[in-house]
Design a protein that fits this description.
- The chain is an alpha/beta fold.
- The chain is built from 17 helices and 7 strands.
- The strands form 2 sheets. Strands 5-4-3-6-7 form a 5-stranded mixed beta sheet, with helices on both faces.
- Helix 10 runs antiparallel to helix 11 and helix 15 packs across helix 16.
- The longest helix is centred in the first third of the chain and has 23 residues.
- The radius of gyration is 28 Å and the shape is elongated.
- The relative contact order is 0.10.
């Protein structure tokens, strides 16, 4: 057994014992070296197989290359004719983000399990990597996540959506439910932008207050419309940081919560009477429909009817806008689409061993989802003009006119 292979096996044993992969002792760099050299050998063998002239292997050349986790001496194989041009690490290349690292992170970003990543790396490069190694490679996302989480934001966002999604995370030896707070913004160009992800023990207005404070500290000075679910105290939390922001409570959340308290035999009839409330052409027509709903169902389902009446101020904001703005703000569908992306990534995982393992996977989901956010929403020019009228003067500082 050669020295390189012996050292590599020893590194794997230390890795299995729980030692760090980077920093003092640096266990990851020897692994990257071996994976890279194995891939280069495979490149040369493919080149020789395609070469019609007499040609063969001719030893190796050495050079020092730098990677994201350290530097190592790379032995690049040569051919007798000198016609071999390596692609993974080119002849004069001395800085390397290893292809295998990229492949692991790319598969991880798609929600591929560690087991399947191991299989793909084995199939592509003929080398077996441990799940601990894969975890260490994907940990390279964590500094990016921290930088992304603290980046400066724009001064004004016409619309933001706020919601939470829950996951099981191991804490002090047992799995507990934790809330990931998601903030999605629509910037002045009408393009979606995920503003931040925050992890807390549970969803609550008090924590939302700290999230909004962080948003303000990162440069967001004004929000025109905030679209939220029905969490108690949420509007007050927003008003304490952004007192001029209009609150639109999600109609779909309100309908779902209402139907929980309606007997199954009455749900169809109740929904028929509820539709004229939220589908009304004007606020006046909606209030007339709500009054009719209260007269017919108020005694039988007072909790539901009272909820609509009590929250009407924040449920009915969208009626003041034209249809192309109503469609954007009357639900939190935009942020729920982000959460659907998260669920695709996490559907095979019953729980997470720690917070970092969850957050780096969700950040990977952001990288995938945001690739499609290149165009403004439909009718954004018209919507922006309407918002500039409704919120007179508040867009002047960011509109280039």
């Amino acid at each position: 057994m050669n020295t390189t292979q012996f050292d590599f096996n020893k590194a794997l044993e230390q890795l299995q014992a729980g030692q760090n992969l980077t920093g003092e002792g640096d266990l990851l760099t020897p692994l990257i070296k071996q994976l890279t050299e194995a891939a280069l050998k495979a490149e040369l063998e493919h080149h020789l197989a395609q070469d019609s002239s007499p040609n063969r292997k001719n030893g190796t050349t050495k050079k020092t290359v730098q990677t994201s986790v350290g530097e190592f001496e790379l032995e690049t194989p040569r051919d007798r004719n000198g016609s071999f041009e390596p692609q993974l690490v080119k002849k004069r290349q001395t800085k390397l983000t290893p292809e295998i690292d990229q492949k692991i992170i790319g598969l991880f970003t798609l929600g591929t399990s560690y087991k399947d990543i191991k299989h793909h790396i084995q199939e592509l490069y003929g080398i077996e990597v441990s799940e601990a190694t894969i975890s260490a490679v994907t940990d390279q996302l964590l500094p990016q996540l921290q930088e992304w989480q603290s980046r400066p934001l724009e001064a004004v966002y016409p619309i933001i959506w706020l919601d939470a999604i829950h996951y099981k995370v191991k804490d002090n030896g047992r799995y507990v439910s934790k809330a990931v707070y998601t903030l999605l913004g629509l910037n002045i160009e009408g393009k979606k932008e995920l503003l931040g992800l925050y992890l807390s023990e549970s969803e609550g207005a008090n924590y939302w207050l700290s999230v909004l404070t962080d948003l303000h500290n990162r440069g967001v000075k004004d929000i025109l419309i905030a679209c939220i679910d029905g969490l108690t105290g949420f509007p007050e939390a927003i008003a304490s940081i952004y007192p001029e922001t209009e609150i639109q409570q999600c109609i779909i959340h309100q309908i779902r919560n209402s139907m929980k308290y309606i007997a199954s035999k009455n749900r169809k009839a109740f929904m028929e009477d509820l539709k004229p409330v939220y589908q009304a052409p004007t606020k006046q027509a909606a209030e007339a429909a709500l009054e009719a709903l209260a007269e017919k169902w108020g005694k039988q389902y007072p909790i539901v009817v009272n909820s609509w009446q009590r929250k009407w101020e924040t449920l009915s904001v969208y009626f003041k806008y034209p249809e192309y703005i109503r469609k954007v703000i009357y639900t939190t569908n935009a942020i729920e689409a982000v959460h659907r992306q998260f669920r695709k990534l996490t559907k095979t995982k019953g729980g997470f061993p720690n917070e970092n393992s969850l957050m780096k996977l969700l950040y990977a989901g952001i990288l995938v989802a945001s690739r499609n956010w290149t165009m403004p929403i439909q009718n954004w020019s018209l919507a922006l003009s309407q918002l500039a009228i409704h919120f007179e003067g508040r867009l002047d500082s960011v509109l280039d006119i």
